[in-house]
Amino acid sequence: MISTLPIDCLNQIFECLEEDKVTLHSCLLVNRLLCRISVEILWRNIREFEKIRTLIACLPNESKDFLLNNGVTSIPISKPPLFNYASFCKVLSIRYLLIEDNEIEILSDNPKNYLITKEILKMFMRQISSLEKMDFSFMEYYYYYYGCYDDFYKNYNFLNFINFPGAKDCLKNLSELKCYSFMNSEFFLQLSKICHNINYLVIIFEETASVGIKDLILILSQNNLESISFSRYNSCNESNFDDIFNYFTLTKHSNTLTKLFLSGISPPSIFTKIIFSNFRILLLYFYPVNIDDILTKFLVNNGKNLEELVLLSDSVNSVIKNSINLAIAKYCPKLKSLYTEFKGIEELIMIFDNCQQLESIRNSCHNSLGGKKLLEIVAKYSPKNFHKLNLHHAKLNSKDLESFFISWKDRVSKRPFSFIFDGDGIVINNKIKKLIRKYKALDVINKFEEDENPEQYINRS
Asked: Residues with Cβ < 8 Å from 247, sequence gap 6 or more?
């Protein structure tokens, strides 16, 4: 019966199943129509290494002949594929074209593999009508590949795919780009000529930074760039960022940017002069603790529309200074999500009083404001929409928790509460399990669970 629905309706239904791979795979066997719709979604993002063999089978005969003539003998001989799988790809992650299965092996270990990847990219440029995302990073494998991937980009003329036939049409609507700072300047220059619609840019800065990055950012800053992520590793010179951030003050860039992520980078003094009229999200990770004046001035200029703020220092012993938390309370009235640390009661109460749209807080209880006292303040002072607390290193027992749940139950305006914690502080015994079941049944608790991925904030670039 579902096959009688209009194709547009079916497409919308199946879009909701994008993350449900099991259901999509089961639909492959229903009929040809549902098979095609499922295949288009499954092949949108090539994340599985086994798909590379299928892509090789999809190569045109001229590419297969080229590979065989150059000593690549692992070309599968099979019937033509049922679909043109390459044309369905919308997300191109280079690492999945380079790494074989789960082995720690990249192209530099086998130069002939480079020829295969080159021919696959040539096919992509011709057959993908409009690529949406392109990722050149190896960040999921960073520690394994450190010192390898930069040599790879230097040793192989890999980035010349941008000059392949069809590349201009394939890349003209690219919306997301993730790359390294050391990549060839000519590559960045060509991107700046073709890709004028990138709204999400991620650059991982290594020891060297190509001058072409500035060309790319200058062009993008004149269009619709909405989100920027800069991560700094090794000994990259911070002067590189001074010139880049200067573009924020010179272009209409400041009217479109809504999100900024900086990891391992000290916000430069130019930050005090930047005004983003539609700014929503600021994520600062592993930054030095001596940026209080710069950050405070930035919040003065840009805090009025801020909805999410994450401040994670590079020192496990440091605490966010009181002046920054007071600036948050004073200049960020629309804040919904906050990750910071508190020295004392007053600044937390002030944030609750002034940030009336606040829904969640993530806090580490290393300091004097412990878990029990924090729960008391949350129950008494948090705004009506507040409903989620993520606590690390909070020493809490069943008595502390029940006292909080009773207080939360008695609130005039309340939402079921979500309590996320790490394994260091709360010991889940039978008494606490019984307590959780009781208050879930009363619709006081929505979630009470251990944080399975405490580093999730670090991986959000």
From this structure: 214, 217, 218, 221, 253
Residue ranges making up the domain that contains 12: 1-42
- 406 residue type, one letter: I
Decide if 269 is inside a domain: no
The residue from 42, 57, 74 where one domain ends is 42
233-290 pLDDT per residue, tens? 766 666 666 667 766 655 555 678 899 998 887 777 888 888 888 899 999 886 665 7
- Residue 433 in any domain: the answer is yes
Question: Total domain count for the chain?
Answer: 2
Length of the chain: 461
Q: What is the pTM of this model?
A: 0.82
In a domain, 314, yes or no: no
| CA 312/CA 285 separation, integer angstroms | 5
Please state whether beta strands 281-287 and 308-313 pair in parallel, antiparallel, or not at all (unpaired): parallel
Q: What is the pLDDT of residues 120-139, one digit of tens each?
A: 899 999 999 999 999 987 65
Q: 318 in a domain, yes or no?
A: no
